[in-house]
Sequence to fold (181 residues):
Amino acid sequence: MRAAITAIERLNEIVGRMTSWLALSLVLVTCLVAVLRYGFSIGWVWMQELYIWMHAIVFLVASGYTLMHEGHVRIDVLYGPASLRTKAWINILGTLLFLFPMLALIAYVAFPYVQLSWSRLETSQEAGGLPGLFLLKSCMLLFVGLLALQGAALVMRSILVLRGDAEWAPGARGASSAAEH
Fold:
């Protein structure tokens, strides 16, 4: 179980760090679009779509990384003061009852949508827009996969905590160092 957690979290750490560079690119492209448009009255559809696509990719692909680093919203009034065992149960039940069913629904709805896009090798509907819209739409399935993997790692971590391995608690010092080895 420890090896699986480590492998999943190493993957999401790499994806998250790569995505952070995309976030920087997003800011730079957005600034460039604004300067070109309002400063020089120049604009290209593909460049405007580029920052929208980058935003979607950052959101979708970094969700597993965000879950790993406890960046998703939760009710801290209940979770914050809870014991490690209670937090472990909340993580297990929340993942099994909410996260996994939501991801299953998203996959169920997104898969035919992505499949159709690939069958057409779909591109932007805008003249001068970006090609490869099917690749962007595929990120929805990547979102499901990476977030499901991190959810599984969270459940496994919580099981280890319930077994008495507090160093594997999400957010614990040992947890982050365990993922790095």
Notes: Helices lie at 2-40, 45-61, 63-68, 76-79, 84-120, 133-162, 173-180. Residues 173-181 have pLDDT under 50 and may be disordered.
